[in-house]
Amino acid sequence: MSYLESLRVFTRVVELGSITSGGRDLRLTPAVASKRIKELEKHLGVRLFNRTTRSLTPTEVGQLFYAEAKKVLESIEDAETVVSQFSAAPRGVIRVTAPLGVGRRIIAPLVPGFVEDYPATEIRMRMSDRKVDILADGLDVAFFIGTPHDSTLKMRKIADCARVLCAAPEYLERHGTPQVPEDLLTGHNCLLLRYPRSPEYFWTLSTPEGPRKLEVSGKYDADDSDVLTGWALDGRGIVNKPRFDVAAHLRSGALVEVLPDTPPEATIFGCLYPHRKLQDPKIRLFVDYAVKQGLAAFRRIETGN
């Protein structure tokens, strides 16, 4: 099993770009992860990585070995999946990712219930508002709010997700309330969700004439959607958020809806997973559980009931 563990460490180090990140992903210390890589290189008699003080990149032979090692690990995973179907209970690790807001408010709270129902499982959850690569990052299930574009993945829709523009009353008193979409382009501070290599930023509003794309701008941007909500509550600008994410603030009056007749285009709250993962009972059970419980939590938060 130590050789297989070394293979797993090696593939994750290649995928995540550092020994520290690869080890952390497998719950290993950097020292242990580094030892596994050195053992693998000694066993193979080749150098798998080019190392500098600032970077770690696979050598040419390391790239070739990665492609074959990945196939080996996937074959083992497939074999374990077949055997697990004869087991009375699902077992093993499920790697999950979700955006920060929906992760904190919906997905994370329902995870313990699943583990209590299936105590032989483990959930390793990562939350980020950045775009993730499910296959490259070695993830099993990725929750999302938006419109998925990767047709190689299986999607389960949880709910339609209305979006809303909103701002604090103090902000609107100082800057005025936009009356038409074009008002957002002049004299208003739009709070933007941005991160490295994010696409060109724009808001798309639903109008009687059809979708209206606006290249908005503002003095503040962040890669954490909850930071944007905090700035909006503090009167710093107008934010574009899923309605459920700010529903409590809208009900209390801390935030006020802006341009209700031309709201942002609705999106989807759902989850993605590789097709082959659905053969794994624990993944299938987790997805079914998350869809059912996630929809119930989504509706409770959105309606306040």
UniProtKB/TrEMBL annotation:
PROSITE patterns: HTH_LYSR (PS50931). It comes from the Bacteria. Residues 1-59 form the HTH lysR-type domain. The keyword Transcription applies. The keyword Cell membrane does not apply. Keywords: DNA-binding, Transcription, Transcription regulation. InterPro entries: LysR-type_TF_proteobact-type, LysR_HTH_N, LysR_subst-bd, WH-like_DNA-bd_sf, WH_DNA-bd_sf. CDD domains: PBP2_CrgA_like. Belongs to the LysR transcriptional regulatory family. This is LysR family transcriptional regulator. It comes from Leisingera daeponensis.
